[in-house]
Amino acid sequence: MICGADVFVSIAHFGRKKRKWLSQFLNLSSGIPSHERFDSVLAAIKPAEFEACLLNWISALHEITAGQIVAIDGKTLRRSIDAATGKPAIHMVSAWATANHISLGQTVVDEKSNEITAIPKLLKMPALAGSLVAIDAMGCQTEIARAILDARPIMSWR
Residues 36-87: pLDDT tens digits? Predict the structure, then answer.
C-alpha cells in the first residue's frame, strides 16, 4: 500500500499527482508508469527473494542495543479472508523491536497450524540474537524457550 493507494490505478494516480516531488528521487522523463506497468512489475517480484532483501535492509537499519526488547505476537490480517475461493484469513506472527518501532520480520502461520509452529522460524532470524524476547502465553513452550536461550549475539553490543 502506497500512501493509502491499495490498487494499481490509485498508485498511478498518486504518482501523477506527486510527479514534481517524486522527480527529486526518480528519473521521470518518460512520465509516471501506468497502472498496468505497476501491476506487471509488482507481479514479477518473487516473494521469498523480496523478503530476504527486505530483511537484510531492515537489519542494516536496525541498531541492536543491549537487552533490546523484541515482542513476538500473532495477529490475523484484516480483510484477508477470500470468500470467493474459500481461503481463510491470513494469520501472521511478527517480531517487533519496541525501542526502534520496526518490524524485524514476520512469518505466515500455516493454514492448519497455529503460532507455536511459526514462532521458531522467527527465532532463527539474526536480528533477534541477543535480544530480550517478550512473548504471550501461546509461546510458552519448552522448545520455544530453548530456542530463545540458545540464540547467540551476532554483533557486538553498542
Answer: 999 999 899 998 888 788 777 776 766 656 567 888 888 888 888 777 887 8
Three-state DSSP state, 147? helix
Task: Please write the tens of the pLDDT for every residue from 93-134.
Answer: 888 888 778 787 788 887 777 788 888 888 877 666 667 888
CA distance 50 to 31: 26
Residue 94 grid coordinates: 511478527
C-alpha grid cell for residue 149? 536461550
* Long-range CB contacts (within 8 A, 24+) of 58-63: 58/102, 58/103, 58/104, 58/105, 58/127, 59/104, 59/126, 59/127, 61/102, 62/97, 62/100, 62/102, 62/104, 62/127, 63/100, 63/158
- Count CA within 13 A, CB hemisphere, residue 120: 12
Which residue carries 524457550 as its cell?
145
pTM for the full model? Answer: 0.58
- Any alpha helices (H) in 79-141, and if so which ranges? 115-123
CA 11 to chain centre: 20
